[in-house]
Amino acid sequence: MAPDALTDYLQQNPDIRSIRVAAADLNGVPRGKRIPVGNAGKATSGGLRFPKSVLNLDIFGQDIEDSPLVFETGDQDGCLHPTERGFVPMPWLETPTALLPIWMFDEAGTAFSGDPRHALRAVLDRFSAKGLTPVAAMELEFFLVDDSGEALQMPKAPGSKKRHASADTLSLAALDRFDSFFSDLYAGCEAMDIPADAAISESGAGQFEINLMHRDNALRAADDAWLFKMLTKGLARKHGFAATYLAKPYADAAGSGLHTHFSILDAEGRNIFDNGGEKGTEALRHAVGGCLEAMADSTLIFAPHQNSYDRLVPEAHAPIGICWAYENRTAAVRVPGGSPAARRIEHRTPGGDTNPYLTLTALLGAALDGIERQTEPPAPITGNAYALDLPSVHTDWAAAIDAFERSESMARLFPRDLIRNYVLTKRQELRQMAELSAEERLAIYLDTV
Question: At how many degrees (to 10) do helices 218-238 and 179-192 cross?
């Protein structure tokens, strides 16, 4: 970042009184510092440091036992540099505040392999070396909840003060009840340069979805999703309730997904999935084949938490059978209809509680693997995938951890150190969550994921 970037930003935004800096840890939790405006110059000059182990904390915010990043190496610092995003406002705070997204490097200036943003950057570099550019977008589902009592419930509508506790799919009334929240949310997206598109009410009571527009920079698409989660959670609290990306906040309602769409452009800007027809190209089939081949071993990325596995049950709008289809939402990998020029893949397995950087790394890396290895997928299914006898993603957290650790395909997509750190993190969380009640687990996950 240019040395005068902070000065320029403060001149354009003279009301700013506080600066935050934050990086995403392996769980996607923002970790960083609050800095007085007068001392914020070091944030733009690369003078910020904090321990590398901070990006490898568990969901409780604690060090990982036996992590080589802690005592074994003296809990060394990493160097924090601004990402390409630059400063963005934090409209959910009372004090005018700017956030500077950062990522971590070693002392010599090399990327820290434990930073999930660098994992995605490395996969995108593989695409770039082949003259290819992924175009990606995410659809974020979340619940608005009242968590002030012993159990979660639908918040009271600001106008009527009533709770509308039934599902109301694609209802304008459901959106209108929380119009002030959504108006502030769209204003916040505009201020933070998050390309928010349509909002809908989903199939759970208090569940909503907002689609983010496609980016021809997948790293920026992941940034969009990460920042959008922060924005929705912060603004919901400002409005007197909570927004949560828990995969399954209510046992008897649908869970929340992070459906991800992507296509791939060649060096001339042509969509390599488009052959002018409905079926798409060989490259599309090979990308699908790569996604399906890696799907079971990727389960831990798509379902990273104990609560995630409550969502992975049959006939709950969360595909668990490893299959693909054209225009079929029961399939884990869907090829939507529409114009051939917009031919793309939708991956429907990830939950709303996932880390966007790791999710895009797994999806795009698997697709590129399939293209490079010319992986042929099985025939696309028709009809209800839940009624078919299909291989499945892992529906047990411990099994998903084991599969991720020993997977050859994951070793091609993620740095060895990140795999080790992530497995240590998830095994520690698995032990800790087993000692807690369902209510205690819910309280931990509600604001963190």
Answer: 140
What's the CA gap between 51 and 24, in Å, rounded? 14
> Is 0.90 topped by the overall pTM?
yes
Q: What string of DSSP letters covers 8-43?
A: HHHHH-TT--EEEEEEE-TTS-EEEEEEEGGGTHHH
Query: Closest by alpha carbon to 304, among 108, 28, 16, 17?
Result: 28
CA 286 to chain centre: 24
Is 56 within 8 Å of 355 (Cβ atoms)? no
Contact 256, 142 (CB under 8 A): yes
Per-domain residue ranges of the chain = 5-112, 123-448
The rounded radius of gyration (Å) of the Cα atoms in the chain is 21
Q: Say how far apart CA 166 and CA 355 lie, in whole Å.
A: 29
Query: Which among 172, 233, 158, 243 has a CA at the least distance from the CA of 201?
Result: 172
Does 3.30.70.360 match the CATH number of domain 5-112? no
DSSP 8-state assignment for residue 406:
H
* Cβ-count burial 21-60 (b if 16+ within 10 Å, e if not): bbbbbbbbbbbbeebeeeebeebbeeebebbbbbbbbbbe
The closest of 17, 7, 21 to 99, measured between CA atoms, is: 21
Please write the tens of the pLDDT for every residue from 392-443: 999 999 999 999 999 999 999 999 999 999 999 999 999 999 999 999 999 9
Crossing angle between the packed helical segments 416-433 and 397-406, to the nearest 10 degrees: 160
- Distance, CA of 16 to CA of 18 (rounded, Å): 6
CB 162 within 8 A of CB 150: no
H-run or E-run covering 247: none
Q: For the domain 123-448, what is the CATH code?
A: 3.30.590.10
